[in-house]
Structure formats: C-alpha cells, structure tokens
Amino acid sequence: MAWRRRSGLFVPLPVPIIAAAVAALIFALQIFGSYTLIRSIFRWLALSLLAYAAAAFLAKPDLFAVLRGTVVPSIEFSKEFLSIVVAIIGTTLSAYLYAWQSNEEVEDQIADGKTTLNQRKGASDKELRRSQRDIWIGMTFSNLIMYFIILATGATLHANGQTEIETAAQAAEALKPIAGNAAGFLFAAGVISVGFLAVPVMTTGAAYDFAQSVGIKGTLHATARQAPRFYLVIGVITLVAVGMNFLGFNPMKALVWAGIVQGFSTPPLLLLIVLMTNNRNIMGKQVNSRAMNVMAWVTTAAVFSASLGLVATSFI
Fold it and tell me: Which residues cross the membrane (predicted)?
C-alpha cells in the first residue's frame, strides 16, 4: 500500500491512524455501497491518474531524448534490466487482471438484469464489441499512465542519479527540487489514487477466487448477510494488507518482487488463453481471427523470452 506512506505528508496524523481509517472506508464502501456506486467511483478515480501525465510534462523532459527512447528503447541482457521487464509484464498481464475483468463482466450483466446463470450464458456480437471496446480503452489508458510514470521519474530522478528510492513518498519528495512542487504534488496524488483503486480490486479479486473455488455466492451485488464468507475474505485480506505495512518491508522492492512472481505466472496463462480462444468447442464461432492470433502468439513468445532471459542471466 504505497499510498499509506505518502498520505501522512498530506494529512497531519500518524500514519497508522490514516492506514486504518482508509482501510475501514474502503471496506465499508465494498460492504454497503452498491456495485453501480463502486463502478462509478472507480471510473472517476481512474481519471485522477492523469495527474501522472501532468507531472511528466511539468518535469520538462528532453523531448528529443523521450522520442528516441520511446521509438528505439535501449535493451540490456542483464539481470537488473530483465527483472524490471518481467515485473512490468507481471503488473500489466497478471492473473488477477484476467480474473477481475471476467468477474466485472458478470457484475455488469447482473446490473443489467441478467441475474441467473442461464440468462448470462453466451454473448451477442454487440456485447462482445462493447467488451472489446472497454478493454482496448482500459489497456490503452493504463499503459499510457505507466508510460508517463516512467517518463516523469526517468527524466528527473534517474537523470539526476537518484536511483535508491525506497518509497513512493520519497519519489514524490525527490521530484520537487528537480521538477517543482506541483510535479511532486501531482505525482503524490496519483500514488494515492492508485492505492484507492488497487486495494478494492486486489481484495475483491481474492474474494472472487475464493468464492469460485469453494462454490459459494460471491458478488458485490449481494449484501453481507447474503454472502458472509465472500465479504469475510475481503475483510481478512484488507487486514493482512494493512498489517504488512508494519513489518518493515521495503515497499518498492516488495512491489518489484510481487511483479516478478506475477510475471513468471503470465507465460503459461497466456498460452492457455490462446489455446482456449482457438478452441471451437469452447468459443464456437468467436474463435480468434488470424490477425489476433499473430498478435497473441508474438506477445506470448515475447513474454516467454523475457522470463527465460531473466532465468538465464540469474545464473550467468
């Protein structure tokens, strides 16, 4: 919870109090808020991530160097470089992303009145086009935000030799003397927004997985009385997440290692997805097109290569 360490710089209260209060607020929203309300809040919070883009422009990067690095990236066959590549893959193509996306499709269908399994079976061409559009928009937006985060920190911190950053709070503070107070403030605001988005996604995602594994009711449309074990899992995971902040972990290193673990799980999952989406017994007429297969196999091969490269450099 990187937002926890940064919040104390905005609110003059002890960090443990802030962490507990924010966790309680998010948990209360998940229990008492309707799915429609939660979805609306998520969408508005996502827009607040544009603060990262503003921070990147305020950093006044060398535009020629930015364009050159974007079009012709420098690639190193080293453990450090490939570790970050695999970690980035793990945060953008991770298992919880697939699970969250598919579960939110179900939640949207329930919100549209399709409350039974039979009503939700299959998908019309219109529904698939809507889903495809949502995914394209969401993935494009998230990757642009990641690009601006890398740009803002690379053009300032890395360019000035500040590579030993342990927390997001330090990153935001370090930006101020280099890019100005506004850039540091906007970067911090983005960090907090990410936290408010990520915590409910992670906790609810874990609850979805648990509910589906043991065959119990698991939906944000249900009340706590209707799905007590589902919300119990959300509560337990929230407590664990808050508690981990007090164990002395280096947040940045923990995030990188979590990304690497997720990154190693991505190649087999992508392979499984490609095989499933080409199986007519599963997909019917909605199997992948030739163009989609080319992109899917190239992506899968690239992800496998990054993981194998990291393994190889770890033993060289």
Answer: 13-32, 44-61, 81-100, 135-157, 185-208, 229-248, 254-274, 294-315
| CB neighbour burial string for 255-270, b if at least 16 within 10 angstroms, e if fewer | ebeebbebbbebbebb
- Residue 193 — pLDDT band, cuts 50, 70, 90? confident
Per-residue pLDDT at 136 exceeds 80: yes
Predicted structure pTM score: 0.80
Mean pLDDT of the chain: 82
Q: Which residues have CB under 8 Å from 263's CB, separation 6+?
A: 86, 87, 88, 89, 90, 94, 303, 306, 307
> How does 209-241 read in b/e, with b if 16+ C-beta sit within 10 Å?
bbbeeeeeebbbebeeeebeebbebbbebbeeb
The answer to the question of residue 288 being in a domain is: no
Instruction: Identify the helix (H) or strand (E) that includes residue 32.
Output: helix 15-32
Residue 299: CB atoms within 10 Å: 15
Give the span between the Cα atoms of 125 and 106, in whole angstroms: 16
Nearest to 220 by CA among 240, 210, 234: 234
The per-residue pLDDT for range 5-38, each reduced to its tens digit, is: 444 456 666 666 777 888 888 899 888 888 888 8
Host domain of residue 198: 2-248
Tell me how far apart the alpha carbons of residues 4 and 70 are, in angstroms, rounded to a whole number: 32
Tell me if 258 is assigned to some domain: no
Number of domains in the chain: 1
**Rounded CA separation 303/297 (Å):** 10
- Do 259 and 278 contact (CB within 8 A), yes or no? no
Question: Does a structural domain hold residue 311?
Answer: no
Contact 230, 58 (CB under 8 A): no
Packing angle, helices 181-214 and 125-156, rounded to 10: 140
Closest C-alpha among 199, 310, 201, 191 to residue 257: 310
Judge whether 259 lies within some domain. Answer: no
